[in-house]
Write a structure and sequence with these properties.
The structure holds two protein chains of two kinds. Chain A starts with 7 loop residues before the first strand and ends in a 9-residue tail after the last strand. Chain A is 0% helix and 54% strand. By secondary structure, chain B is mainly beta. Chain B has one domain: YVTN repeat-like/Quinoprotein amine dehydrogenase (Methylamine Dehydrogenase, Chain H, 7 Propeller). In chain B, the strands form twelve sheets. In chain B, strands 4-32-31-30 form a four-stranded antiparallel beta sheet, with no helix packed on it. A four-stranded antiparallel beta sheet of chain B has the order 5-6-7-8, with no helix packed on it. Chain B has a four-stranded antiparallel beta sheet with strand order 9-10-11-12, with no helix packed on it. Chain B is globular, with a radius of gyration of 24 Å. Classes of the chains: A mainly beta, B mainly beta. The interface between A and B is large, with 47 and 80 residues.
């Protein structure tokens, strides 16, 4: 009663590699709602030292 | 490997457009606007005079008189005319549609509920009082059987200790007048006046409502100072300076809540509690997370003096209307959630910007939704508080529409993280900025609503990928 119990999640696949990431959610429909709880980012660490030719 | 599933850190958002924070910090699309009119289509406007005549003040006026049953009127000023509404969605002129109460462009119009009257002032016109049946101005009326001693021509007023306090007087910019207790029209018998730091380079700009037995006066707009008036009568009134700097920009930019006083200055947004405890250094500004608006000129500094504010007690938010840089209309509201925020320097602050694409919001207040209008538009919110927002197009809007459109117009809610560069692994290792990561997925946690979708954009080292996710229920829905 004091808090909702509805919950869902959506997983979005990214195929990229880099040093930084920024995420944005937007919802612009008339009469349409959006309520976000949070997010997490799936990643794996790559090489500890940059391998670019310098 | 996945980063911690995190409720978005409020200090860690770079865009929070049209977002309201719920009790758990959830980011939810704000409520929409509905026209206060007799229209039930939500799209038809009901301008008081015309769509080119701005509304410059609108308040909720409850009056008991000599009855235990109060009556509610909405009182507004549009153009040079005064209006009232009994809560039926209609506006009726009090002094004629072509009357001459001040100037249509006046940005200081104020209505104060005092002594069973709505006191309307803007300095450019003779102040006037309305008791839900007649208008009284200080030039013509009698009160209590004797000739009414003239009010000064003031800009703004507050009701405190059964007295009317008045400021913004052209002949004495640092002076505050007050009336006798129990009679807001008696400026001579026991009422008097005082000056606040005359000649300090500022004038009295505004004042708070009564707050813990005191009233606070703001001087500005150059240097800024904050003064506490204590005492219960003219024989023991005492004034002490409690704040320095942070000059108030407009008398309508002060919000008094039961727990704090908030205001906008030339440099940011402040609260009394935080200012008195921590001073007016920038780290103590409530607006620190959005200080970029002032510092980099993203809002028009030259029109900050038009700023007005409102309070929504049921949603624990206060908001200030500003003009975005490069634009001409007051279509942004800077919204602060004081229930979730930590006012201490460095504490988390929950800020959002509400952006109205079709409005120029010129004034606002909170009213209790009248039962008549509630029935008319088939709502279920009679008696509940909601913001009423006056517009330059002559309309008053109510901002609590769960239909989630601005009188039929869509608006976009947007949440964006900053650039995230450091991640922790399951073994408590830190993956620093300099190390590459392979990004494989974003997991979004949300409250399922209906069969609608949201756009998700991801920048990896500024390379953009976009997709759409469904916000529908199903799957892991718990009921």
């Amino acid at each position: 009663m004091l808090g909702g119990s509805d919950f869902n999640y959506a997983e979005t696949i990214i195929e990229d590699r880099g040093r930084s990431i920024m995420v944005q959610w937007s919802q612009g429909g008339a009469g349409e709602d959006m309520e976000l709880y949070g997010y997490s980012i799936r990643f794996y660490p790559a090489e500890q030292q940059a391998k670019e030719v310098s | 490997m996945s980063s911690d599933a995190t409720v978005l850190d409020p200090n860690f958002g770079t865009v929070m457009d049209n977002i309201e924070f719920l009790e758990g910090g959830q980011r939810k699309k704000r409520l929409g606007l509905q026209v206060y009119s007799t229209s039930t289509s939500h799209t038809t406007t009901g301008a008081m005079i015309s769509t080119s005549t701005p509304v410059r003040a609108a308040v909720d006026f409850w009056r008991y008189g000599a009855s235990l049953t109060p009556t509610q009127h909405l009182v507004a000023v549009s153009g040079a005319s005064l209006f009232y509404s009994t809560g039926n969605g209609k506006w009726t002129t009090l002094n004629g549609a072509a009357s001459s109460f001040g100037a249509s462009t006046n940005i200081n119009t104020m209505i104060t509920i005092a002594g069973d009257y709505a006191v309307i002032s803007d300095e450019s016109a003779t102040p006037i009082a309305y008791n839900q049946s007649t208008l009284k101005d200080s030039q013509t009326a009698t009160e209590g059987g004797s000739t009414w001693a003239l009010w000064p021509r003031f800009t703004g007023s507050r009701y405190h200790l059964d007295r009317l306090f008045m400021w913004g007087i052209s002949t004495s910019p640092s002076r505050v007048h007050y009336t006798a207790a129990g009679n807001i029209f008696d400026t001579t018998s026991t009422g008097s006046s005082f000056k606040i730091a005359e000649g300090d380079g500022d004038r009295v700009i505004g004042a708070s409502k009564p707050f813990y037995a005191s009233m606070y006066f703001f001087k500005g707009p150059q240097y800024g100072s904050l003064w506490q008036l204590s005492g219960v009568g003219s024989t023991d009134f005492a004034m002490v300076q409690v704040g320095y700097g942070a000059p108030l920009v407009n008398q309508r930019a002060v919000v008094t809540t039961p727990s704090d006083i908030f205001w906008m200055s030339q440099y940011g947004i402040h609260s009394l509690q935080t200012t008195v405890k921590y001073g007016n250094v920038e780290e103590a500004f409530l607006s620190l997370p959005i200080q970029k608006l002032w510092r980099e000129g993203l809002i028009r500094r030259d029109r900050l003096d038009e700023t007005w504010a409102f309070w929504h007690p049921q949603r624990s938010i206060v908001g200030w209307a500003v003009v975005p840089a490069g634009e001409t209309t007051h279509r942004w509201l800077l919204m602060y959630n004081y229930a979730l925020s930590d006012p201490k320097p460095g504490g988390k602050k929950f800020w959002a910007i509400w952006k109205f694409n079709n409005n120029d919001l010129t004034c606002g207040d909170t009213f209790l939704i009248p039962g008549t209008w509630n029935t008319l538009v088939s709502r279920n919110r009679a008696g509940q508080p909601a913001p009423i927002l006056g517009d330059a197009n002559g309309n008053v809007f109510v901002n609590d529409w769960t239909g989630l459109s601005d009188y039929g117009n869509a608006y976009t809610a947007t949440v964006r993280t900053p650039v995230l560069t450091r991640f922790a692994t399951d073994r408590q290792q830190l993956i620093p900025e300099t190390q590459e990561k392979g990004f494989v997925g974003i997991v979004t946690y949300f409250n399922p609503t209906a069969a609608v979708s949201a756009d998700v954009s991801v920048w990896v080292d500024r390379r953009l990928q976009s997709t759409t996710i469904s916000l529908a229920g199903g799957g892991a829905t718990l009921t």
